[in-house]
Fold each of these.
Amino acid sequence: MEKLKIFYDRTGNTLTVWFGYSKGEYTSEETDDEIVLMKNKDGRVIGFEKLNYSGSATEHLSFSLETAEI
């Protein structure tokens, strides 16, 4: 995996996460949980966006990453 890129948009209330190269997006699909999956031409998920994500202005975002075998 390349670099993980995380963007928080306070104005739009979205949290976007890219698993590497974000310009490879070809299509997207919204789930029932207000999450948009961004996919490349092969249908592989290369990122996601959480809609209606809200964090306080003073809150620091922290993330824990784990790897899983597929």
Amino acid sequence: MPQTEPVLLIEDNDGLREALARLLEARGYRVVCARDGQEGWEYLERGGCASVIVLDLLMPRLDGRLFRKKQLERKECASIPVVVFTATEAQMPDAVAVIRKTDPQSLLDTIDRAASIPALSD
């Protein structure tokens, strides 16, 4: 699947982040990893782009909900689709999906769909 922008993977668990990055790369995606929401936000603020953001919710420094709030407030990145990947029961109505960490196949399938959504351009 041709793609110019990477998947931004924001996950504080080192082992899980590395495993997901390898899985996504094996599926043909370029991946940019961030250890928490603050690192992910700094990437976007520096002009980084993404076709989709995979977002954990419970993280140090800047958690997933605050990251998403900041993302929606910034016009340049508000339209990037977000897939929440979390260990807890959670809801985020403006996300493409909320997927439990016990279901990585659903995560991969959802990323495939979300990455094909054209970004809104203004």
Amino acid sequence: MRCLACKKGSTEAGSVTISVDRGSIVIVVRDVPARICTTCGEEYLDAETMKQVEEIVDSAKDSGVDVSVKYYSAA
């Protein structure tokens, strides 16, 4: 896939770390599968991966912690 951000690079499979700030808490999700631009580093997640990340974030938010580090695992 050609990068939509820089229009020059192509993407390759990799993994990223996503940080989400939800008011008074911060959730970090590591090892999230993504497509990453080889030129500018822009990250792309597919819809299913985004859904899983949102579920991880919601679960961490509901646990009542201030900072949570989770690892992505496919359902």
